[in-house]
Structures are given as C-alpha cells and as structure tokens.
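TICKET: design request
STATUS: open
ATTACHED STRUCTURE:
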C-alpha cells in the first residue's frame, strides 16, 4: 500500500505513535509518506520506503494567524496526486482530520477518491476538541472520516459522550517496539546518578498542566523521607519552571535531576526503579508503557485509559487524581523490599509485551484493508 501519514512531528505521544507506525509499515514493505511541517523527531534515518513532504506555510504579513490547515490540505492534494497514494492516515483530529476532509473533496474534483483514517489520541478529544471553539469542526471531520480509531476504550467512550458521532470507532491501543525499549546495560549512568545505590524514580512528559508534574515532586518528597532515592525528570514544557521552584521550596533539589528532552529515553528508563504518571487525564499513557517495557513498574492515576494498561497491585498501583499520599504510600510499598520490587518489574515487562508492535501492526494493516474495500464498494 502507499500510505500518507499526517502527524505532529514533535516528541508528543501522537507524533511518536504515528512515526513508529510509519516506520514499521515501511519495514513491512509499504511505501509511507509523512506529510507535516517538520521532519518527525524519530524519523532521522534513511529507508527506501519512507518519504517526507514538508508543508510550508506562507507568513504573508496580512496573516496574524498563518493558515496551516489550508497549506496542509493543499500539500495533501499535491502528494496524493503525484505519489498516487492509496490511503491517508491522520493522527490527532485537530486540524488534521478537517484538512484531510478538505483535501478529499478537492481530490474528488480530479476523479480521485482517497479514504481517510483518523486516529484520536487524547487531548484532541478530552481537552482541545471538546472546547466549543473547535467542537463542530471536530465532530464533522470525525463523522466524515472513512475509518476512525481511538487509542483506548475510554477514549472511544469519551468521544461518543462528548460529540455527536455517527461513525463506528475502532480501538487500536498504543504499541511498543520491544527491540528498542528493553533493558540496556547502563551501569555507569546508574552509578553516576545513584552512587550509593539509591532507588531511581522517573517521570517523563511534556510538562503540561494535564500531566500534574508538581504532584510528581510532592510524591517524591514523601518517598525520599523513607527510601533513599533520586528523582529523574525527563522532558520539557510549561510547568518545568514551577517544578524547579517547588524542588527548591521543598529543599530536595540536590536529589532531583532535570534532564530535559532526551532521544534515548530507554537508556534512562533502564536504570530506573519506578515511573510516576499522576495525570489529570491520559487516554492511554504511552510513556508508562515505554517504562514498563524497560521493566519499570508504574504508579499512575486511575484516569482515562490508564486502567487499560496498568494492572493495580500487579504492574504498579493506581490512585485517584491528586491523591499524593496514596501514590507516595504505594511507591514506598513497591520500593522498600528488593524481592517485591523485582516481582513488580517482571510483571511490568510481561504486561508491556502484550502491546508489542508485532501484535498491533497487523491490526492497523487489516483496518486499512477494510476501509479501502469499503470505500471502493461505495465508489
Ligand atoms: O501526552 C500528551 O500530552 C501528548 C499527546 C499527543 O497527542 O501528542 O498524547 C496523547 O496521545 C498518546 C499517544 O496515543 C497517548 O499515549 C497519551 O495518553 C495521550 N495524552 C493524553 O491523553 C494526555
């Protein structure tokens, strides 16, 4: 198949899923064309089946807000026509699904009928999408897609709850490449971070409000009173500055390292003992899955799709959003005994294997075939 993928090219979860999916499809012999405004973060190598088409937006002085959606729609028309694509798969509804709809209508005037698959990732529904500013367009473009997927049952339910959706939504969960995300021997790094063999606690995110990163600091502050430990914070975003201040106020800065954005996050996860994700809402929790694949148990909130990943008392624990005391207690219970920690680590790895790329890739391929056949029969 010739597949066009539209995504955000950043480190965000939807961009990571789109890029890893595209790479795996290309490895499986499909021709994959990424169409976005910058080279996706994890697409930094050559493959004969991978192509990148950059969307450039005019910054004509009249535009206070450069019309990216129009530029994207035009580029989609161009790439679909020139490269003879079979299907378009857009990740994150805003503005990708509506740009794809527009491109589809324009292409129809050339006699080209291309099916569009939209994957809903989370905040495109739970936060931004349901805002009245975007809601009518998001509803319309989901309903006009030829196929719709969501990354968890919870996100599917939320979409039906908040939007007037007439389309069937297929749940296809996030996945993990177990070859990349596996335990790496990084003893020198472990020694540098925890010279006295302290436990290592980790959080990775984009430090947005929805991630409740300050809860991570407060949980750690309680844990470190009982368990000699260090805290690693990976990623960057608006709340990082408040987190740094909070560490100073709580006088724990000495034991907390802000590592910023990291490409090889699996290497840092490999030396870690516990991952904390206290998010306000999380449609799936890809970062938690990445941790589990590196044998790291997880303490998460019980919001969104997290109960579909984290098995309470087995792969870690789940507590109510904002319940810092419960999360700290559960963290201590996992970390205090070596044998107990080892068991949680094994369980986390076993669970992560259920989301291996090799299991999820064929599900996407089959979905494309279904959508293509259905749209051919309607043409
Ligand atoms: O986590 C983020 O805020 C980024 C966001 C995105 O769309 O880029 O991630 C969402 O999609 C990921 C991949 O499907 C999911 O694993 C994350 O749970 C989801 N984030 C939220 O729902 C907050």
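STATUS: resolved
RESOLUTION: sequence designed for all positions
ATTACHED SEQUENCE:
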């Amino acid at each position: 198949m010739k597949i066009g993928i539209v995504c955000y090219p950043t480190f965000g979860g939807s961009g990571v899923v789109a890029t890893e999916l595209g790479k795996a499809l290309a490895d499986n012999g499909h021709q994959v064309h990424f169409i976005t405004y910058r080279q996706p973060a994890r697409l930094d190598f050559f493959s004969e089946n991978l192509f990148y088409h950059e969307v450039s937006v005019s910054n004509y002085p009249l535009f206070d807000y450069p019309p990216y959606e129009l530029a994207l729609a035009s580029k989609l028309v161009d790439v679909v026509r020139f490269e003879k694509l079979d299907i378009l798969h857009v990740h994150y509804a805003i503005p990708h699904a509506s740009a794809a709809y527009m491109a589809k209508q324009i292409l129809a005037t050339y006699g080209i009928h291309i099916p569009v698959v939209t994957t809903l990732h989370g905040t495109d529904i739970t936060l931004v999408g349901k805002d009245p500013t975007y809601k009518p367009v998001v509803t319309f473009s989901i309903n006009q897609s030829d196929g719709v997927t969501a990354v968890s049952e919870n996100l599917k339910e939320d979409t039906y709850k908040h939007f007037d959706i007439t389309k069937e939504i297929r749940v296809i969960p996030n996945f993990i490449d177990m070859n990349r995300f596996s335990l790496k021997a990084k003893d020198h790094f472990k020694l540098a971070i925890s010279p006295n063999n302290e436990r290592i606690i980790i959080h990775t995110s984009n430090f947005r409000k929805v991630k409740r990163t300050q809860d991570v600091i407060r949980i750690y502050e309680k844990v470190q009173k009982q368990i000699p430990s260090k805290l690693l914070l990976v990623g960057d975003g608006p709340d990082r500055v408040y987190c740094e201040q909070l560490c100073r106020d709580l006088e724990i800065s000495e034991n907390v390292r802000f590592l910023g954005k990291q490409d090889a996050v699996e290497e840092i996860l490999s030396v870690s003992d516990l991952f904390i994700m206290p998010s306000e809402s999380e449609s799936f929790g890809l970062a938690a899955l990445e941790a589990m694949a590196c044998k790291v148990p997880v303490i998460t909130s019980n919001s969104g799709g997290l109960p579909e990943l984290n098995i309470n008392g087995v792969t870690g624990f789940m507590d109510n959003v904002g319940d810092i005391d419960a999360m700290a207690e559960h963290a201590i219970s996992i970390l205090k005994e070596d044998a107990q920690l080892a068991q949680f680590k094994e369980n986390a790895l076993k669970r992560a294997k259920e989301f291996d790329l090799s299991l999820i890739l064929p599900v996407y391929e089959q979905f494309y075939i279904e959508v293509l056949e259905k749209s051919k029969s309607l043409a």
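CLOSING REMARK: Residues 12-15, 17, 92, 121-123, 151, 174, 206, 208, 210, 279, 281-286 surround GMT (CB under 6 Å). The first strand starts at residue 2 and ends at 6.
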